[in-house]
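In this section we walk through a basic example: taking a raw amino acid sequence and producing a predicted 3D structure, encoded as discrete structure tokens. The instruction is simple. Fold the sequence below.
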Amino acid sequence: MKILVWTMLLITTSFAQKVRLDQSYTLTGDRSKTQQYFRMQSHYIKYTQAGDRSAHEFYRLLLEAHPSADTTKYTCHRFTIDLKGKKEKSIPALQGWTYPFAPGANGLDDQGQMFSIPHSKFDNLTTDDGQTIDQEHSYAVYNCFIDFHSFDIFSTSMNEETGIEDLHKIGDFIIHAAANTEPPVNLGNSIEQGSVFRNGEITMQFKGLSRINGKLCALIGYDSGESSFTMKIRATPDMTVETSGSSHYFGDLYIDLDSFWLQKAEMAEFVVSETNIPSMEMKIPGIIERRVTIENMSKKEFELLLEKSF
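The resulting token sequence is shown next.
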């Protein structure tokens, strides 16, 4: 027993000598140009007004990053959707889709698209059994890509604005440049202009160090503050259905201090909303919890997932 305790003390002392908890760290820089492999899951939990969990929905994405000196391209190798928590179905239109990550000024391109992700890619989506994916769930599919790249933005330098590069020591705290911004959430022709997400006072804190995938990582916590949104959906040529509500999202990022690539991300979000249907003179409440996880993995692990049937 004494030998075991002494060995643990030696290991702890060695780690402390190598990684001083009070030292200064650089959290951003030129990322490694090696390919990266990611698995992402977005889990929606819908609640009744009585607080019962009434539905579970899962969106799962396998995404490969191809970094180069000029830009980073991404390939979606598989996207599955499971709207009842029982059976996954793939979306053939997204399999093998490659696109460049081009965030543009304020995240928008010249067509008003977030991160230059084309809205048309999410029109008329179907599952592998030929079932049409409706407007609500098509938006959730699109939003998975927006979420993924939002974490990417959080984990990279904001240049002259305040960002993660301004965190140097454990305990450091910032208000991120994305605080109080209003990115559009319109998608295609059915979700109209004026549909926006209003970020609250987004904060980030250097919480500590961790090991993910055998890599020394900075553990960064983030919190959206009091966020809200408005979504205007053209239900018919003569009727617009408007949903408004509040959101609070928060979680952790694990960033490799060597390659500067995100190794893991976790997010929890709580959304409370109300939908106004003018033609029926009624208002429908909505309560949703979202849990998002992103995992960076080896090429071998990624390929094994692709071989796995579902």
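Looking at the output, two observations stand out. The chain has a mean pLDDT of 90. The CA atoms of residues 167 and 298 lie 28 Å apart. In the next section we compare this with other chains.
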